[in-house]
Amino acid sequence: MLLSFIFCYAITTLAMPFFIKYMHQKQFGQAIREEGPAWHQAKSGTPAMGGLVFLGASVVTILMMSIVQQHWSNSAWSLVIALLFFGGIGFADDFLKIFKKQNEGLSSKQKFVLQLLGSALMSFIFVLFGLEVEIPIFNIASLSHPILIFFFLLFWITGFSNAFNLTDGLDGLSSGCGIISFAAYLIMALQAGEQGIALFCVTMIAALLGFILFNVKPAKIFMGDVGSLALGAVLAVLSLLIGNPWTLLFAGIIYVAETASVILQVASFKLTGKRIFKMSPIHHHFEMLGWSEWKVDLVFWAVQIIGALIAIAIF
Q1: Which of 16, 169, 228, 263 has its CA at 20 to 30 Å from residue 212's CA atom?
Q2: 296 neighbors 286 (Cβ within 8 angstroms)
Q3: Are 257 and 204 in contact (CB under 8 A)?
Q4: 141-157 confidence digits (pLDDT tens)
Q5: pTM for the full model?
């Protein structure tokens, strides 16, 4: 595990400066949406697609370690497939926005359909690899009917892919939350004796620790959809493979809160014409209250740590 960590961390930290320099030279910067806080416009032009580097480092490490250590189970390979497919969706979106200068990238409908296809693919992979998925219900029963599990996977994987994407709105916020979530699942995987899953989690932690050096305020690079869509989907798959998806409601409590804030904001405005939050997702609400990005990051990370500890205790 230590070798995987060192190798992935080294690739990410060594490759990222060259990627940032290349993006600056080509003037491939992120366009900041006008709907966000006005002061975020100062970030316009910051390179994005950093997820391409740390996901690439992860995949290279996984391929090498699978040859050297022979610890990669079917569960671990299913995580790699989720990483590649949802990372591919994010890459297509980022590519259109940044390289092709199409501000909106993929349409929301196109992205949603592709995410559903990716979730359906993971259902097929589970069957192909002989991975059993059960959804525990109040510790007294479990959801095991194939059709119900299929629709649950569509909802769960697509939902958390988008939830992580919503969280990626402040310098360092989502990358820090991701480190905490993967650390929680590393502990759970070790408790369950899932060596392959544990090695995957170690690799992702190393990748994100390498990335966050360049992503904390003032961010030198953003992860982009290529990173956020992939990480959210992979965490959802992790929670399924570990045998208790409900742990992600706690280990990913910030993703849940960010998504809930958007849903509540839209519902409230449509029903009453009034907004609950000053701005959604909720991290912008606290910014509008006068919190600095660092304060939002630290408080949200602390909440995520508490949630992760609860998830481990539940597991």
Answers
A1: 263
A2: yes
A3: no
A4: 677 788 989 999 999 99
A5: 0.93
